[in-house]
Amino acid sequence: MKFPKEKKMYCKKCHKHTKHKLKEFKAGKGRTLAQGNVRHEKNTNHGYGGRYKYIATVKKQNKTPVFVAECVDCNAKQPYTLEKRMKKVTQE
Question: DSSP state, 33?
């Protein structure tokens, strides 16, 4: 789906409708010492029989795209999502 690079939206900081730059949200690098990662490594990497029993789940192929909307006037950022699921988004 094609999507514009700029959109006029309501800014919570300016309290008015202004132009916002839209760019796709990308998650940061995960922490290696987070509790979930430590537990997962502990359970999967030791011995012969102490393996996790993985349950095969079918994941959905499409996700709802998340954007970061940045106000042109005050540079405040807010998340902006499209409600439809889609495989890929291209910005014009």
Answer: T
